[in-house]
Design brief:
Shape: globular
Oligomer: single chain
Helix content: 40-55%
Order of helices and strands: EEEEEHEHEHEHHHEH
Number of strands: 9
Radius of gyration: 18 Å
Length: 227
């Protein structure tokens, strides 16, 4: 069969539309001079008040998907073809997931963001330590280490193991879940103060009112939510 002869129905919704659930697409964007920016990392963050959970779901960047209005391609292609709007349509068409908003950060701002938050303490392997040293010259050993922005970026991008991109996406979830756990105990005033510093470092299709609305609506669950 040619591609034109194959018809795939839009996937049924996997999450019912509810005021108790908000789904944000977190994008790590690889911006290079004179090149089109690409989504190096795509993570779905689902906050569910009813279940008191925060779920991080990595979308493998080599997944082959149907792209509305275009030929099928890898899931990192919609962003190049039509930005976050097309990526959201692609998510809904293939997975039945209605995305409420997108938040994207490039590599430079990712480093600044991690440094702003005081770094992250994570367990690293000797292979990860060697890769970080090769990329930025920081000497680390296997075990629990405090990573600054530069080290955290290379930790998140490393895929030189047998598990390849599977292990790489797991490292990205470790970084996010570590940050979430470290800031769960902060007060709303403290977090709103951080938000003022964080927002200039990211690009989002959410309005400031939407961000503050989600923040105030879901803040009460943060302290006890399972990640």
């Amino acid at each position: 069969l040619s591609e034109e002869e194959v018809v795939l129905e839009t996937a049924p919704a996997v999450v019912e539309t509810s005021d108790d659930v908000v789904t944000i697409l977190l994008l790590g964007v690889d911006r290079r001079k004179n090149e089109i920016a690409r989504t190096d990392s795509i993570i779905l963050c689902t906050l569910n008040k009813a279940q008191n959970t925060i779920t991080l779901t990595s979308m493998m960047r080599d997944m082959y998907v149907r792209i509305p209005g275009y030929r099928s391609n890898r899931i990192n292609a919609p962003y190049v073809l039509g930005g976050t709007a097309l990526l959201k349509k692609t998510m809904e068409h293939n997975f039945g997931i209605e995305v409420d908003g997108c938040v994207e950060v490039d590599f430079s701002h990712f480093k600044d963001l991690i440094d702003l938050l005081g770094g992250i303490e994570v367990e690293i392997s000797s292979a990860e330590a060697n890769y970080i040293y090769k990329e930025c010259g920081t000497k680390l050993s296997a075990g629990k280490q405090l990573l600054g922005g530069e080290e955290a970026l290379h930790f998140s991008r490393f895929r030189g193991t047998a598990s390849g991109d599977l292990a790489r996406t797991n490292r990205q979830r470790i970084v996010l879940s570590t940050l979430l756990n470290e800031y769960k105990s902060k007060s709303m005033t403290e977090l709103l103060g951080l938000l003022d510093d964080i927002l200039p470092m990211v690009t989002t299709d959410l309005t400031q009112n939407e961000i503050l609305g989600y923040f105030k609506d879901f803040f009460p669950m943060l302290a006890s939510a399972d990640i």
